[in-house]
Amino acid sequence: MLNKPVQDAIRHCYQNLQAQLDNFIPRRAQNYLVAEIAKTLGGSYDKKRRILVAEAGTGIGKSLSYLIGAIPLAMASNRKVVISTATVALQEQLLHKDLPLLQRIYEKEVTVQLAKGRQRYCCSEKLIAFAEPDNSHQIALWEQKPKRADVELVKRLFSALKNQKWDGDRDSWPTHIPDQLWQHIMADKHSCHAGLPLHRHCPFAKARDGLETADVIIANHALLMADVELGGGVILPEPESTFYLIDEAHHLPQVARDFSAGAASLMGAASWLENLNQQASKIANVADIKQSGRFLNQLQDQCQFLIPELRDIAKQVDPAVFADDETYRFEHGELPEWLSLSAKAMAESSKKALQSLGKIHDLISERIKTNEIAPRLADPALAESGFFLQRLENLEKVWGLMAQPNKDKGAPLARWLSRNKEKDNDYIVEVSPLEVGYRLDSMLWSRACGAVLTSATLRALNQFTFFCRQVGLAENDGSQYLALSSPFNYTEQGRLVIPNMRYLPQDQGFTQELEEKVLEYLEGETASLVLFASYWQMNQVAQAIEKTCIQRGWLLLVQGSESRQSLLEKHRNAIAKGKTSILFGTGSFSEGLDLPGKLLENVIVTKIPFAVPTSPIEAAHAEYIESKGGNPFLQITVPEASKKLIQSVGRLLRKEHDSGRVVILDRRIITKRYGKALLDALPPFTRVIEK
């Protein structure tokens, strides 16, 4: 229960907002959300199950609400607050805007720390090694020969870090760092930790200073899942002493599933295992061959088994099973007998190789700690063994999952092969869980001191059921549920128009009709966003209307032609100059795009955003639901489309005085039985349905 001092602190915070914000208008929905967060986390509803799922519409101010509702309670009860987000933009908003504002309205000092995963930082020692001129040994670790541009970039990174013009954070480098390059210089848990002298002041160690003493930690969903997978309390504070504020919570199921999945190539793995087999003796010598000899023998034995086994599996894959597709999925997650036997052998052998190399790695670390060897001599060996340990961990994970038998209860694992587009006659082995809710419940919700899951879009078809199933909650498990509508006057501020269309999206003439209708509904509008379900259709329409746009002096900005940031900047500049600007985008433009006021007054949705079940995971999930007598279209596809459509429509009104129009060019929303549910889940705009 909330005691009076905590209640007073929360009340004073909210009252102080008026003095800090110009034109502040108290909102009943925001006030209510603050109270519900505080009461839930305080145990007023359920002392054991302190979980709130809150959908808070645009304009309520949910981030400030959960800060005011949770932080005074956490400070008073000596608990930590972990805020988890899905985007860097929200992290920056919290760090530079919302939390500094809270500090001005709250009487106690709150220490805040941004937490990122180790792999977001470079390892200074690895960077030095790769930046050394003509370092053929380090170059040999690359699976593919590095491009000249990559080598030059490594040198620029090293120079910037050395001259303190870069902090080693991948996100703070002004240009994109290719993944293949980054994986060779990023920090890893094996060779980059504070227990080793040369790494006590590396970029990652500096970034983690103060994490243990911080009151509030800002993380992302991936880092949260990394901590959960490690058992909790390893990277972030212990779940039992933590209030989790999970914003953009609709992303959590996908992040959790991706984190539990694995992929490894066959020939690519054989290639780096050959390198490991060749370098193993040299690494073991640094560990003192007298102590490491038996581990070296075990490691090389496993390498010599794994390399031909991987190549043999690649040879046994029948290219004909792929047909025109790039993937081949094993139905119901069941492997053929030959691959099942190989998977078990691969899982066992890769595990033994991992253990053997891990022992050698530990022996080197111990020699450094006991001053038996100079860090400068041992560090290259640690970096190299750490490089291989990471790959062995992934290999063991992938084949362990491939070998895992399907359980009697619950969904099977999705298992499939993909063609390696970068290497002929090579295949990528991929495996993923279909449902992760049970893991989230057992490893997080059942342990957490309290949790708030919030977003502007959590419900599908006006219900929390779909989201609950995804994240492992139940509507009758003691968790609290809250849906707060946006404060906007949708009826007066917006119109929802459904034009008369000759064709439905599945008809052959639909794309050509789109070309006509999009132009028609762009006419007379200054700032528009047109959302497509596919890149192909977007580009077709863009090419068809490009000449007309030029003739009329309209600026047409198409996703993919430039970076998202560049397109938005051009759009803002055009609107500021009184010109007409049109943004064309796909699904990623339907979320997180914040263009208030005159920057966006016309949203055209070309098609209900149904996901095409072409990915192996989606196909496997549909197969599983059908095997249980369910309907995957109604149970998965329609709820997902509902959430995406709400997000698309939500681009229109971002501030209380915004206005405009939404046009949906898909008549299925009024002609199909499921269409009514989709339509009813949208904001209550004034509807104009053409006959």
What does this structure look like?
With 691 residues, the chain is of the alpha/beta class. The protein folds into four domains: 4-115 and 211-257 and 437-484, P-loop containing nucleotide triphosphate hydrolases (Rossmann fold); 118-203, no CATH class; 262-432, Four Helix Bundle (Hemerythrin (Met), subunit A) (Up-down Bundle); 490-689, Rossmann fold, CATH 3.40.50. The strands form three sheets. A seven-stranded parallel β-sheet has the order 3-4-2-5-10-1-11. A seven-stranded parallel β-sheet has the order 14-15-13-16-17-12-18, with helices on both faces. Helix 21 (564-576) links the parallel strand 14 and strand 15. The N and C termini lie far apart (56 Å).
What is the fold-level CATH name, i.e. the topology of the largest domain? Rossmann fold
Q: Please give the alpha-carbon distance between the first and last residues.
A: 56 Å
Proportion of β residues?
5-15%
Question: What count of helical segments does DSSP give?
Answer: 25
Supply Rg: 27 Å
Q: What is the CATH homologous superfamily assignment of the largest domain?
A: P-loop containing nucleotide triphosphate hydrolases
**Overall strand count:** 18
Give average pLDDT, whole number. Answer: 91
**Major β-sheet strand ordering:** 3-4-2-5-10-1-11
Provide the domain count: 4
Percent range for helical residues? 40-55%
Largest sheet: 7 strands, parallel
Shape assignment: globular
Q: Oligomeric status of the shown chains?
A: single chain
The CATH class of the largest domain turns out to be Alpha Beta
Level-2 CATH architecture of the largest domain: 3-Layer(aba) Sandwich
- Which class best fits the helix and strand makeup? alpha/beta
Uncertain stretches of 5 or more adjacent residues: none
